[in-house]
Amino acid sequence: MGGNGKHRWKISIFRSSFPSKLQNKQPPAEFICPISGSLMFDPVVVSSGQTFERTSVQVCRDLGLSPPLPDGSKPDFTIAIPNSALKSTILKWCDNSGAPRPAAPDRTSVESAVRTIMDSLIEAADDKDSRIRASERELLEGVAEKPDVLFSHAATELNHRATHFYSSSSEESVIANAIPATPLLPFTTRPLCFSSSLSLSSSSSEVVSDEITINPNPNSASEDEEFVSKLKSPDIYEQEQGLISLRKLTRTKEEARVSLCTPRLLAVIRPLLVSRYAAVQTNAVAVIVNVSLDKVNKVKIVRSGIVPPLIDAMKGGFPESQEHAAGAIFSLALEDENKVAIGVLGAMQPLLHALRSESGRSRHDSALALYHLSLVQSNRVKLVKLGAVSTLLTLVSGELAGRAMLVLCNLAACVEGRSAMLDANAVEVLVGMLRRREVSESTQENCVAALHSLSHGSMRFKGLARGAGLAEVLREVEERGSERAREKAGKILMVMRGRDEAAAAATEGVLLEGGGVSRYRVGRNACGVNSTEF
Hints:
By secondary structure, the protein is mainly alpha-helical. It is built from 25 helices and 8 strands. It has a 3-stranded antiparallel β-sheet with strand order 2-1-3. A 3-stranded antiparallel β-sheet has the order 6-7-8. A hairpin with a 4-residue loop joins strand 1 (43-46) and strand 2. The radius of gyration is 31 Å and the shape is flat. 40% of the residues are buried.
């Protein structure tokens, strides 16, 4: 008490740094989207059973990504069903805990998160010291034990370009058995991107090509240092010399393709793939073709970030560079581990565009690249969205008929592809091909195989087939076609007959005397059993 007789009170006020309801309160893990890492605003259940934010699913679909989950599984984004129960639970938790309700996610931020995941999947495993991971070593050892392709030496050449005639019957072949729906047919396995003489914008290249000195010991520890030094030089002439030398070395010495495919050298070559100097760009892309021939290098090249500049070269590079870029992507697409990444990075559209290129080599390599990439479901869906079906159907009557049919057979293996093919009148187009006498045996088999895929699970197929006269053509195939074509033709005819019989049984009725009442028999078979009358 003070001298003036008044009481003085000391009041202490405590302010919590956290709201009482939220203190140390975190949302349950099942409320968080595994992709965006945020509380889910609109949770959906996908085909494989996991729950994600709807926007995350849409972005992954658009980018063709199926990210691995913490448990090692990969989600299937084919179907997305609203998870209303979980959404209600999340909102109730927010209200009870005092947390703000989740807002609709920003698509840009989700796309950024997905692209970050993609980048980590493609590049994170590439060690700085260029050592091969154990998992990669196991993959490569497995391939060595059971190789899936016979990839001949398609190294680019330095000689003057001559006029070449390419026939698929003379190429080394491989049976593609990745997808049962795809006919097991032989096709070429090497790019046709043989480079020209160095008749490029820099005349000095032609002189240098005859004066190249090659390190006689390609296994030396510092063998790439000389190349790296030249390729990093600000002098364009030095860059040309280094690339020409590297190109010739990787063409003639197989062991150099592996020893020189180092992260350091790939990093130096990468910006040269889009150089505005024709000699530099063309030789740089040709080097990538050469080193990609070795199985060990394929995954390493993709993870080094080479594919985006290759795609840029296809879109706007010099004509010869475009040929080499298509061949390089084809070569890289032979590796199963690269297929999804190449599709995600945007190679589909320029490859489709290259099918109409003036260069036969570009058309050939692009078609086979699309075939290998379309062995993956996500790439098939992407191709359908890009309008590949109509493009391919316009090509089945030309020189690319066989290769276009290979891709169409892959597309017919998925629901989206079958729907798009039926919408594009593929049945009539394929029947027209079968009517042509000059069609090859392999193309005939492809046509019948595609029609067999279209005949399953589609109510529209029978009407389209009848309108196109398919039954008559298939009976001719049964008489004159190959064994595989006859087998598929017989199965299609059985499907068509079965539907005709089912339709007849479903509509068969006996009109009762004097009235409008009909008696229908359902499920009637040839023996008259298992019928129900009502």
